[in-house]
Design brief:
This protein is mostly beta strands. It folds into 3 domains: 366 residues, YVTN repeat-like/Quinoprotein amine dehydrogenase (Methylamine Dehydrogenase, Chain H); 114 residues, Immunoglobulin-like (Sandwich), CATH 2.60.40.650; 116 residues, Immunoglobulin-like (Sandwich), CATH 2.60.40.650. It contains 4 helices and 47 strands. Strands 6, 7, 8, 9 and 10 form a 5-stranded antiparallel β-sheet that branches. Strand 13 and strand 14 form a beta hairpin. It is elongated and about 110 Å long. It starts with a helix and ends with a strand.
Amino acid sequence: MKNPKIAGILCASALLLMCSAAASYADLRRMGDTFSVIALGTRGHAAAHDSRNDVYLVVSTYGVLRGRFVSADGVPTGEPFQIQHSGHYSHFPRVTYSPDANNGAGAFLVTWHESDQPGGFTSVHARLVASPGTLISPDTIIGNDSSWWEAGAAVAYGSGSREFLVVWRGRFGSANDISGARVDTLGQLLGHVAVTSTAGEFEGDPGVAYNPTTNEFLVSFAGATHVPYVGFQRVQAGTGHLLGSKTVVAEAGGTWMTEVAYDPSANRFLIAWYSLPSGAISGRFVSAAGQVLGSVLHLSSRFAANDALSLAHNRWSNTFLLTSHDKHSAENGGVHVNGEGVPETSGTIFTGSGGSGNFYPRLAPSEIRPEWLLTSSRAFAETMAQRLQADGSSGTPPVGPSPGPAPPPVSNPQMNMDSPAQNASVAGFVSVAGWAIDVGAPTGHGVGAVHVWAHPTNGAAPIFVGAGSPVLRPDVGAAFGNARFAAGGFGVGGPLPVGTYDLVVYAQSTVTGTFNNARVVRITVTAPPTIPRMAVDMPAMYQNVSQNFRVSGWALDAGSATGTGVDAIHVWAYPIAGGAPMFVGVGLLNQLRPDVGAAFGAARYTAAGFNLEVTGTLPRGEYNIVVFAHSSIAKAFNNAALIWIRVN
């Protein structure tokens, strides 16, 4: 504990120096008493902070999942409300907040396990909830691979791609891998991610955190090969692609309950876990690029358990808080850890609930002050909460020493795909529209290029749809408070074969020089509507012709968006007396027919005319002359006209 008198003397005697943020926030204190939030049976529980409304959502379940809001000053508001209505048994929820969900008004994504699979196995569910208790998306199954319900389905929000990543231990009892699901801000499943797929390593107890600088998630987990270990896997937000391979952080006699938190000031992650034989909580830093840093850290011996661990970073105090069960009492406690991974003290008891035990503590950092809300299950009978504050501030970080030269700009990519919508069906030609900017750019709108790729869901090679053309978006400039962002609009269009695709828009930041932002929607491309039309003017029906004659007329497909919609004319002769048909020739296209353009109300059909000069190809006799038109829309010969003639 720091000495306030000495600290005051040092600050007074060095007027050119200010107390650093780390020193000012070294202490931790309880704010008020531990209080009841949901006085109903609870086992698993969690909380998250709504930065727009400055409230916490606390969720808990012991068979039925409920939620309740808690104000910033620790007062439960309203009554507990039910989130799950299926009638199945639910387990161990998790929750995180997105300011972009609910049409920009903000909402929480709540995840939980539910015993609704055959044989009593569980699936993973998700639902969006907004203040003051509105259920704004359906109860959606996002994973049905027999999840392990004793560890919550961890969830983090990726602001760069505006999507959530949910991870859990899947295929319990067989492969025991880490499964994942990408969920959009409408609460809809975007796709699954096989975070790990190594048979026999029994991966479990995952945690997940998001790095907005790289637009990546980092998933931590425990596993076992010849020895137990803690590892991680990086996942690209916006696509779900795995970045690099699984990396081992540490090995031990036993590993459980991994947690990971991101420190934006150092641009790195801290992974924590319960370890044997020490029976303590250990930790280790990992860089944004996925490099294991330094050595294993000893974080807590007294506050440690193999079934209880929560770790959260607060950007206002620039410190981590870790909580678990107290080995010396029935309460929960933990340690306040500075940015270098050093506990400020040996630990503090956080709760004052009493009773026979307080279980599975979880932490929710405030997004607007140096505080956390801790939740706990008191004797499995009710959900309790406790406010905790990093001491030494009135709510905003203190000013540090003069930084000297200005730091380089930090990328803050933002993007939205306005169309097509998720799960849209398009006919042949896809049009993509939206906007992309990097708010961190000192000048311009911050994006140098936009590329669109279509990834077939059948595993075929991706198709490049095109590069974005600039579109003026004054609404974007207004939303971000600077007219330079009005240049961030884009439009891309291109044809795609029939099939189902993950359509991905990639934006290149001028700050980083890399494609560091992406949006994805799943679309189905159907065959476009085809409306073939044709007429043969020459020869006339039943006409007698010489061996030298002309075939002429017009052909179009009114379903085309450009051109005439016809890209080939083939002419065949079928002898009336029988015998094999004879190929007469290929018609010459793009003959001017202003009458056709006028009749169909579009100048592009003026080029719908065709002709073919036949010179001695056919012997004397009677024939059915058949003219076939090939549609550029249907990619097939889908129209034909027949004329009976006699060749003399």
